[in-house]
Amino acid sequence: MEAGDVLYEVQGPQALLTVNRPKARNALSPSVVKALMDGLERADADSAVRVVVLTGAGEKVFCAGGDLGQMTGDAGFLSTHEGRRSYGKLLARFQEVRKPTVARVNGHALAGGLGLVLACDLAVAVEGADLGTPEIDVGLFPMMMMALLQRHVGRKRALELVLTGDRLSARDALSLGLLNRVVPAAELDGAVAALAHKLAGKSQSVLALGRRAFFTAEDLPLPAALEFLASQLSLNVLAEDAAEGVSAFLEKRPPQWKDR
User: Fold this and answer.
1) Which of 105, 7, 3 is nearest to 60 (CA)?
2) Are residues 18 and 119 in the same domain?
3) Distance of CA 32 to CAs 29, 67, 180, Å?
4) Does residue 63 contact residue 56 with C-beta atoms inside 8 Å?
5) Carries keyword Isomerase (predicted)?
6) φ and ψ at residue 142, rounded to 5 degrees
7) Which of 20, 91, 103, 252 could share a disulfide with 120, CB 3.0–4.6 Å?
8) CA 125, CA 181: separation in Å to the nearest integer?
């Protein structure tokens, strides 16, 4: 494991990225955002990595959002603005990475920290975790992560969260579709490992194709989405792993993926 604001460790088929600022509630500083981006790039380039898991150091906070102590920059307004845009680029990078991503929500996920949870494909949280967008209480608005929140819940619930700053319990967040699992703290590692193992056992080429198609189709009108997805299915059936998967099914044996 490498030290720094973000720890990077390969554990079998998974790359574990850990935001490592427990004294600052794992807040998102510019260096954390850059290190997370670098970690995603590194995991994406490593053929041995099949799943990326994101978590926070400690047992209380996954990520409390942006570091308010570093809100103002000393490099000029436009340069500081470009620095803030890097968080939005990070959220987009989670969708662009070829590997499936899982958030291991070990504690509270607030503001930009909730954005990281929503940016991951899947999320498993401990029972005691709170999730929410409390920025309004300090005179700010959850601008960039709001784009992901809008895509996860309906307009009324999204507006209620960003306008009131109220926190959700993990169980309430699960009911809204912000999480996939909620488990006792003692079961968190096992639940994440089981999910990561399941994802690692799939064809990585087909997962990459399917994830890209999912995110592209999400913002298309229905007729355009169906037309686009038809083209992606035609690409899918030409993959070697598609032929292997069908053969394995017909022959009643486990598939041997070549990831191509």
Assistant:
1) 105
2) yes
3) 5, 10, 25
4) yes
5) yes
6) -75, 70
7) 103
8) 6
Catalytic residues: 135
Quick check: 148 and 119 in contact, CB under 8 A? yes
Question: Is 184 found in the same domain as 129?
Answer: yes
pLDDT in tens, 58-104: 999 999 998 876 666 566 777 778 878 899 999 999 999 999 999 99
Going by C-alpha positions, the residue among 156, 166, 103, 158 that lies closest to residue 130 is: 166
Model pTM? 0.94
DSSP code string of the chain: -B-SSEEEEEETTEEEEEE--GGGTT-B-HHHHHHHHHHHHHHHH-TT--EEEEEESSSSEEE--B-GGGSS-SS-HHHHHHHHHHHHHHHHHHHHSSS-EEEEE-SEEETHHHHHHHHSSEEEEETT-EEE-GGGGGT---TTTHHHHHHHS-HHHHHHHHHH--EEEHHHHHHTTS-SEEE-GGGHHHHHHHHHHHHHTS-HHHHHHHHHHHHHHHTS-HHHHHHHHHHHHHHHHTSHHHHHHHHHHHHTS-------
Centre a 10 Å sphere on the Cβ of residue 232 and count the other Cβ atoms it contains. Answer: 15
Are 155 and 183 in contact by the 8 Å Cβ rule? The answer is: no
- Contact, 147 vs 119, CB < 8 A? no
**Residue 257 falls inside a structural domain:** no
